[in-house]
Write a sequence for this structure.
């Protein structure tokens, strides 16, 4: 029997399935994969990879030789599972092949979506390096959160496919075992891709921080140059600000001379800083 329904309706199947496994589903949080005699229980939090920022929703799968049941947390997930199952030819296939088809369809377009996400991070990296004024720490945090959620999502799928591949209760026949081995390899590649994306975002964040540091250093450099130029002028102000009767005060052109000396000091400082390539 193949059935797709909401998790809230699980009591309707209490008399149809194994009592122990039903108590597990209803009363205890299910691990990612639980192998029992004649029954596999699978649980994972599905994420729409096209909109990874959305909240995940749980899917529980009851898999035995006779029964394959999907219990979905909400209507959105129910529609997704129904859509996937409509693409699978269920007339002649066994439950194991239908389960294989379900996971294959579930991750079918994920590689394209991960490549699109990588392209977005590449654009962000270019902005960080070439146009840091357009980059934003919020966008970097956004992509860090996205890659973190995707890593958790594919890690749980990897646990499930690895456990199916181990086939401890021999629910999967040798004729079809090779299919689950291939599925396991595909999920492992996606796990590796997401880890690489997460490292990529970390590198972009470090590049962004480096650009911020460079900008701050440039600002401090400007203030230091300005301070260096006006430091001699400050000395003049302090010198002539003393309450003494200086001879220069009696000169007819004393004031213009001080102005000229101040301008000359500024020009000399600017030429000196340029020669040292400090500005």
């Amino acid at each position: 029997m193949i059935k797709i329904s909401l998790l809230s309706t699980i009591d309707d199947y209490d008399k149809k399935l194994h009592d122990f496994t039903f108590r597990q589903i209803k009363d205890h949080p299910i691990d990612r994969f639980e192998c029992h005699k004649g029954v596999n229980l699978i649980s994972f939090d599905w994420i729409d990879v096209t909109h990874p920022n959305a909240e995940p929703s749980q899917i529980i799968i009851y898999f035995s030789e006779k029964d394959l049941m999907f219990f979905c947390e909400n209507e959105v997930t129910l529609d997704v599972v129904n859509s996937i199952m409509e693409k699978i030819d269920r007339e002649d296939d066994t439950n194991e092949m239908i389960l294989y088809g379900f996971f294959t369809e579930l991750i079918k377009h994920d590689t394209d979506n991960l490549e699109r996400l990588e392209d977005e991070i590449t654009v962000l990296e270019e902005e960080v390096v070439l146009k840091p004024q357009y980059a934003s720490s919020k966008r970097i945090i956004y992509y860090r959160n996205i890659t973190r959620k995707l890593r958790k999502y594919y890690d749980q799928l990897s646990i499930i496919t690895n456990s199916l591949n181990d086939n401890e209760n021999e629910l999967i026949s040798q004729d079809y075992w090779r299919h689950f081995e291939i599925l396991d390899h595909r999920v492992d590649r996606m796990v590796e891709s997401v880890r690489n994306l997460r490292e990529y975002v970390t590198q972009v964040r470090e590049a962004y921080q480096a650009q911020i540091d460079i900008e701050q250093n440039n600002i401090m450099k400007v203030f230091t140059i300005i301070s260096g130029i006006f430091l001699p002028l400050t000395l003049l102000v302090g010198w002539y600000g003393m309450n003494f009767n200086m001879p220069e005060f009696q000169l007819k052109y004393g004031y213009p001379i001080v102005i000229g000396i101040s301008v000359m000091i500024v020009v000399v400082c600017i030429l000196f800083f340029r020669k040292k390539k400090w500005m």
